[in-house]
Amino acid sequence: MHDSRADSADPRARLPGLFALLAVACVMLAGCATNPVTGKRELSLVSSSKEMEIGREGYPAAIEEYGKYDDTALAAYVDSVGQRVAHASHLPNLEWHFTVLDDPTVNAFAMPGGYIYITRGIIAHLNSEAQLAGVLGHEIGHVTHRHTAEQMTQQQLVGLGYTALQIGVPQLQQYDPLAQQALGLFFLSYSRSHESEADELGVSYATLAGYDPREIPSTYAMLKRVSQASGSNIPAFLSTHPDPGNRETRTAQLASQAAAGKSGLRIGQRDYLRHVEGVVYGRDPREGYFEGQRYLNPSLDFQIDFPPGWKAQDSRSAVQAAEPSQRGVVQLSLAKAGDASPAAFAQSLLTSGQALAAEGGGETIGGYTAWTGRIVVKGQSGAVHLDVAFIRVSPQTMFEILGESAVAGDPIEGAIFGTMRTFRAIEERARLNVQPARVHLAEALSAGTLGALLPGLGASGATPDETAILNNLELDQPLGAGKTVKVVRPSTLR
Fold it and tell me: For labelling, which of 97, 255, 321, 344 has a CA lying 20 to 30 Å from the CA of 267?
């Protein structure tokens, strides 16, 4: 994750002569482009066609890594709002794509080429259609102003190149270079000037689309109160969208000016809350969870035990663990093996040249056919020796477990192979039916403060403070009888 960068850290401040020269020569260069928002010619080493390619190639990788939220009605609703706002933007004819990610993080992202992602985490925390329009308008603004292309151009000019977007994001290395580049954008922090421009465009686009922009400032107040999404693998909003300063005050002023003299602007609270009913809240245990050093994944029906003291984490595509001193690592993921047997798959790695050498043999792990051993692959700095296990659990599914220790045959390597051999189907079958916490709409039966009313609204899967933030309210805020309140029905995870 990159740190938020202030304008003073802009590479242009360190290279004024170079950028001045390039600006003068811009009209002579094939690498210049017209900014759709300003109408000005700008230096750009990322063409519009390259932006489209990055967004297009990044889409399937984003879905594989973070998951598409499985709610067709919500997806259609978000897309309809997004298309309405995008049509009011500086690029109304671009083919825009709006996708809800199955991630608890409170954030939204823009990829070049009109690919906008919004997490179910932030959807749960918004409270009106106008707020949603403001968030989507902000991300649309990043695309129309070509902020990502500008940052990528600056990085190349100071010698960082595209790979700078991937630093510190090891889980992305399984994808091809262009997909890695696209996913790396999820971790890239905008500059404060970019945020100011996107804030302004978000207000403008939402208003032009017929939404009441005066709903937008409360979104930023909520985002300040949300510190982080526990257990997520992508950053929260303020990590990637730094506050340019007095954001709430400034957006309130912009909203007031934009709404002046206009009537019939849409808020859409009732329709929005109707679509939020039942949205998964927090981590979804069906996609995997830890109980101490044991990891269980009900959706794929497996469990595995990691060595005591090893630090483990998971993403949608893999679960990893590392020895405390970093002398050993192990990772489990699905293998792209077709219908090959474990032994045949190991041999295919040699035949295809993906492995330089391989030694091992067949065995049974957790009742499944497996192949374990060691393979040698080509790394950036030479040969890499890996401990491997390929485990076929069904005709359609095979898992691969990869491990690496500092010294072959040392105790850490023994722990890696020991971990591999704990792989098995979930033993307590009732855990296959675990259900996540979900947002539920409740009605205040009497007047009172939010804090006083919460105990009467049933068992909760969120703290009182979290529930207050979820509703963009304070616990001591008075509510009238009949007021709709979002609460969280708890997970069935024991």
Answer: 97
